C-alpha cells in the first residue's frame, strides 16, 4: 500500500487565489481542445474544484466522488471498483498535457496530486502550491512526487502509430500464410533498435555517493527487463568511438541522467530523458520518497521501477519519441523496428484492416531479421488476435493458434527473458484451452518484469477469465492506472469485470469509455451489458453491428464464449446477457 503523510501548508504565506479566478481557470481548461477527456472526467474535475473552493476539501474522497459524479450507490467500495482512481489518473495526464501545450502562460495552475483527490491551486510564479481548502491538511504526493515536466497524451501515441502505416505499405506485405522460416541465412539477424545510455546519477548532497551509484545500477537493471530497447551504462572505461564499447555509447539515441539528494528524511531523485541528436528534453520527472517508511534498498527499487515503466514500456517516453519521428528514421536500419511501433499503433483501435498490414510487416521483419525476438512475439500476438477477435480466419493455411504458439516459442528460444514472447505464449495456450499452462507462463513472465502494464493487464485478464475475478480484475485496473497508452481494450475488460460482479451500471460506463468500436468483442460485451439493463433498442444496435461486421461469431455463440471464459457458471452468466439482448444462444 502507498504510504502517505499529512502536512499543513502555510496559508498565511501564500493565500489561495480568489474563487472567481479559480473558476475562470477551470472554464479555460474545460474549453480547451488540449484537455482531451470524456464528459465524466470533466464532471469529476468540476466537482472537486467546487468542493475545494467551498471549503469542503476534507469531504473529497473516492466514495463521495463515486456517488456524486459516477452515480454509484451507497454500496460503493473503492477497493473493488477502481473507477475513481483510474479517472483521476486520466485527469492528471490531461492536466499535464494542457499546461505543457496550451496553458504555459496561465496565471493559475490546477493540479490533483497523487495520493488523494483534493485539488491544489497555485499561481504560476514559482511559488508554493496551495491546497484548495484552507482548513484541510493536504495529502502529500506519493509514488512519483512532483508533476513531470513533459508527458504526451496517449492520443498522440495512437496518431503517430497510424501515421506509420504508409511506410509499412512501402515495406511490403507478406502474402504467405505460415510462420516465416527462422533458419534463413541473412547477414544481420537483429535490426537496429533504440539504445538508451544511462549516465551515472549525480550525488547533489555531497554526502553519500554510494546511493547515487546504487540507484543508477537499479535503474539500469529495471529498464533492461524491457526488450523493445537496448540499455547501456554510461561512461564505460575506454569509451572512445574507436572501441566497441565506445561505438555502442556513440550510437545511443537517448540519454538518461539524474541527480540524487537527501533532504532530511527524504530521498529526492530528479531525472530527465534527452534526445542526443538535438539535445531536446523528452521527459522529466521528480521522485520524492520518505526514508522512514522503507529500507533504502526497497526505496531504490521502487523508484527504479517507476523510471523504467515511464521510459521503456510499449507506450512509454521512448516509444512516443520514436513514433513521432518514425518518418525520418533511416529506411534500411529502422524498417523492422517501425513494424513494432506500428503494432502498438494498431493496438490503439484494434482495427481489422490495420491488423492485416501490421501482420504482413512483421512477417517480413522476421524473415529479414530472424533473430529479432520482439518481432516474433508481436507476430504471434497478431495470430492470436485473428482467433480472439475473429479477424480473417479464412486467411491462414494453419490454425491461428498453432501459428501463434510457433512464433511465440521462437521468440522465447531467441530470448528466454522476452516477456512479450511469454505474453504471446500465455495467450495462445489459454485460447487452446490449456488454462493451467497459460497461467503458469503468465506468472513467470510477471515475475520477470512486474513493471510492464501491458503484460500485467493481459495476465490479470487471463486470471479473471479463469474464474479469479477479484484478483485478476484488480491487476487489470492497477495496470490501467499505470499505462499511458491507449486503454480501450482494457477498459472493455473492466466492463466485463463489472458485468461478472453484476454491477451492470458500472459495466455500461466502462464499455462506453472504451474507444475500440471496430473490435467485435467490444460489441459482444456491450450487447450482454445492455441486455441485462433491458436497454432493448441499444442492445439491438449492438446485435445488428455484429450480424453485419462479424457474423462468424454468431454461428456458435456458446463455443465462442467458452473459448474465452473458462468456468461454466461464468459462461452461463454472460450468455444470459446475450440472450436478453436478442442473440440466438443455442
Could you explain how this protein is built, in words?
This protein is of the alpha/beta class. Helix content is about 55%, strand content about 10%. It is built from 24 helices and 11 strands. It has helices at about 20-30, 40-55, 60-70, 85-100, 155-165, 165-170, 210-225, 245-250, 295-310, 315-325, 330-345, 350-370, 375-390, 400-415, 420-430, 435-450, 455-465, 470-480, 490-500, 505-515, 520-530, 535-550, 555-565, 570-580, and strands spanning about 5, 110, 120-125, 130, 140, 195-200, 200-205, 230-235, 255-265, 265-275, 280-290. The strands form 3 sheets. Strands 6, 7, 8, 9, 10 and 11 form a 6-stranded mixed β-sheet that branches. Strands 2-3-4 form a 3-stranded antiparallel β-sheet. Strands 1-5 form a two-stranded antiparallel sheet. A hairpin with a 5-residue loop joins strand 10 (about 265-275) and strand 11.
Topology, element by element:
Layout lengths: L5 E2 L11 H12 L8 H15 L8 H9 L12 H19 L6 E4 L8 E4 L6 E2 L6 E2 L14 H10 L1 H7 L23 E4 L3 E2 L5 H15 L6 E4 L10 H7 L3 E10 L2 E10 L5 E10 L5 H17 L4 H8 L6 H16 L5 H17 L4 H16 L11 H15 L4 H13 L3 H14 L4 H13 L3 H14 L5 H13 L3 H10 L6 H13 L3 H14 L7 H8 L3 H13 L6
Helix pairs in contact: 1-2, 2-3, 2-4, 4-18, 5-10, 5-11, 6-11, 6-12, 7-9, 11-12, 12-13, 13-14, 13-15, 14-15, 15-16, 15-17, 16-17, 17-18, 18-19, 19-20, 19-21, 20-21, 21-22, 21-24, 23-24
Amino acid at each position: 500500500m502507498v504510504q502517505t503523510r499529512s502536512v499543513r501548508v502555510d496559508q498565511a504565506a501564500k493565500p489561495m487565489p480568489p474563487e472567481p479566478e479559480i473558476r475562470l481557470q477551470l472554464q479555460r481548461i474545460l474549453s480547451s481542445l488540449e484537455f482531451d477527456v470524456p464528459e465524466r472526467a470533466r464532471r469529476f474535475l468540476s466537482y472537486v474544484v467546487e468542493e475545494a473552493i467551498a471549503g469542503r476539501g476534507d469531504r473529497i474522497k473516492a466514495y463521495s466522488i463515486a456517488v456524486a459524479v459516477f452515480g454509484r450507490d451507497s454500496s460503493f467500495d473503492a477497493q473493488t471498483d477502481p473507477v475513481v482512481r483510474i479517472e483521476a489518473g486520466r485527469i492528471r495526464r490531461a492536466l499535464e498535457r494542457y499546461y505543457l501545450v496550451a496553458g504555459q502562460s496561465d496565471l493559475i495552475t490546477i493540479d490533483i496530486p497523487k495520493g488523494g483527490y483534493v485539488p491544489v491551486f497555485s499561481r504560476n510564479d514559482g511559488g508554493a502550491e496551495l491546497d484548495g481548502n484552507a482548513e484541510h491538511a493536504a495529502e502529500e504526493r506519493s509514488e512519483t512526487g512532483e508533476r513531470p515536466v513533459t508527458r504526451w497524451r496517449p492520443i498522440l501515441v495512437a496518431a503517430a502509430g497510424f501515421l506509420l502505416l504508409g511506410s509499412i505499405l512501402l515495406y511490403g506485405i507478406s502474402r504467405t500464410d505460415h510462420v516465416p522460416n527462422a533458419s534463413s541465412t541473412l547477414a544481420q539477424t537483429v535490426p537496429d533498435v533504440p539504445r538508451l545510455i544511462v549516465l551515472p546519477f549525480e550525488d547533489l548532497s555531497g554526502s553519500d555517493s554510494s546511493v547515487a551509484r546504487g540507484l543508477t545500477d537499479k535503474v539500469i537493471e529495471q529498464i533492461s527487463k524491457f526488450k523493445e530497447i537496448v540499455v547501456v551504462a554510461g561512461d564505460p572505461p575506454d569509451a572512445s568511438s574507436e572501441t566497441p564499447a565506445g561505438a555502442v555509447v556513440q550510437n545511443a539515441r537517448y540519454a538518461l541522467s539524474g541527480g540524487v539528494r537527501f533532504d532530511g528524511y527524504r530521498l529526492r531523485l530528479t531525472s530527465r530523458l534527452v534526445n542526443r541528436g538535438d539535445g531536446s528534453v523528452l521527459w522529466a520527472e521528480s521522485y520524492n520518497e520518505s526514508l522512514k517508511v522503507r529500507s533504502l534498498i526497497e526505496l531504490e527499487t521502487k523508484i527504479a521501477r517507476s523510471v523504467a515503466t515511464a521510459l521503456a514500456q510499449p507506450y512509454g517516453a521512448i516509444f512516443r519519441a520514436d513514433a513521432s519521428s518514425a518518418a525520418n528514421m533511416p529506411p534500411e536500419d529502422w524498417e523492422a523496428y517501425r513494424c513494432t511501433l506500428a503494432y502498438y499503433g494498431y493496438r490503439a483501435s484494434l482495427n481489422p484492416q490495420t491488423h492485416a498490414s501490421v501482420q504482413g510487416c512483421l512477417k517480413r521483419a522476421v524473415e529479414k531479421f530472424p533473430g529479432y525476438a520482439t518481432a516474433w512475439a508481436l507476430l504471434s500476438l497478431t495470430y492470436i488476435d485473428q482467433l480472439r477477435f475473429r479477424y480473417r480466419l479464412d486467411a491462414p493455411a494453419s490454425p491461428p493458434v498453432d501459428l501463434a504458439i510457433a512464433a511465440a516459442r521462437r521468440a522465447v528460444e531467441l530470448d528466454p527473458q522476452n516477456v512479450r514472447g511469454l505474453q504471446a505464449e500465455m495467450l495462445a495456450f489459454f485460447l487452446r484451452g490449456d488454462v493451467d499452462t497459460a497461467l503458469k507462463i503468465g506468472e513467470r513472465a510477471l515475475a520477470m518484469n512486474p513493471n510492464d502494464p501491458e503484460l500485467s493487464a493481459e495476465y490479470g485478464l487471463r486470471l479473471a477469465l479463469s474464474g479469479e475475478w477479484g484478483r485478476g480484475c484488480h491487476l487489470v485496473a492497477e495496470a490501467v492506472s499505470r499505462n499511458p497508452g491507449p486503454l480501450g481494450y482494457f477498459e472493455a475488460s473492466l466492463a466485463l469485470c463489472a458485468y461478472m460482479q453484476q454491477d451492470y451500471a458500472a459495466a455500461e460506463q466502462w464499455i462506453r469509455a472504451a474507444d475500440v468500436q471496430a473490435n467485435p468483442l467490444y460489441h459482444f460485451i456491450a450487447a450482454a451489458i445492455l441486455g441485462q439493463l433491458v436497454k432493448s433498442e441499444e442492445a439491438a444496435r449492438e446485435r445488428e453491428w455484429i450480424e453485419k461486421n462479424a457474423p462468424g461469431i454468431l454461428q456458435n455463440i456458446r463455443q465462442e464464449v467458452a473459448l474465452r471464459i473458462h468456468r461454466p457458471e461464468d459462461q452461463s452468466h454472460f450468455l444470459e446477457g446475450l440472450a436478453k439482448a436478442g442473440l440466438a444462444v443455442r
